[in-house]
Write a structure and sequence with these properties.
Growth Hormone, Chain: A; 401 residues; membrane; transmembrane
Amino acid sequence: MTTTSSRPRLITSTFAFAWLVNFAQFMVFYLLVTIMALYAAQQFGASETAGGFASSAFVVGATAARLFSGMLVDAIGRKKSLIISLIVIVLACLAYFPAHSLVLLILVRIVHGAFYAIASTAVMAVAQSVIPATRRAEGTGYFALGTTLSAALGPAAGLALTHKWSYTAVFDIVTALAVLAFAFALFIRNPEEAHHGGGRSLRSMIHPHVAPIGVFMLLIGVGYAGVITYINAYSRANGLEAGASLFFIAYAAISLVMRLFLGRVQDRNGDNVVIYSAVVTFAIGLALLAAASTNWMVVVAGLFVGLGYGSLLPAAQAIAVRLVPTKEMGAGISTLFLFLDVGVGFGPIALGMLITASGYKTMYWVLSGLVIVSGVVYLFVHGSSDRSRATTHAPEVHLEA
């Protein structure tokens, strides 16, 4: 069915099932990432460094896979690549049970991360393919609500399951979620683009049109890495555990509210109004963490980080999709997340050295400044272009799926 009205339909069956797959995927990620380092330490006597790598090995696998995930999705099709990758993810979740050594656990994490990257690229491309161009940022924001919900529910659920039952209970849940994601994917009816063989070229791995905005998101990712990696240790060192326990609830709550309308603002008024305001609020949130002396300051910091980073990710994704032809959508999405994964996954290495030298508060001050610098980078790579000021699109035909 061709949609010709001035406000075309946004929520379709394909969009809904893709949303459910994405939510289940991110729930699996957040359930595991919060418990994996401690699991490795308790089960295998891993050191803090080795336990940390058992957790971050997932990101290592995902980052490596981003180099070819877009090419793969564009070459063999969105739904087919999604189904195949979800099958491997189910097997990877099952493999956590018999992984009785640290080496095996790390290998499972790498494989899981790699196919998670392929699946996430595919499902995002599926969703973007049925979002009307004139509602691109709005639809992307709604799609990202699943990520926000999982970020709020997953870490708390992982900790609760391990405290009340066992790590095996977490593996049971993530396996069930992986199976559900696979089942939801079977119901996706996505009109595929014609495939062009997907020759292995630099463009198919790192799309040149998206790489500049990817550099901006790499810097943003380093800022966010300082939050998710070190806020618990920072809060313990400064007696702010109560505030830290509410930080991500505040983050998720404000992100959910803002994503209900910020996409419309971006569609109507262009990218800059959303990006610049989010950069400023993110920097304020990091500065509040650096200056925090009471629990309420940490909670308020969570609100500002949610306003900032929580708005930047869907806004940047909407930009990336608009910068590439439809047939190269997979490459565009994977390029954006490749740069983001590098920032989130490898940023903590440099930040750990900074903490050792100067402490947590200095790190958060530095990250606040880095986010401001990222805003200057955005100005040069996208913010000064005509496309950033007004979201204009050529007419497109969108099929109900």
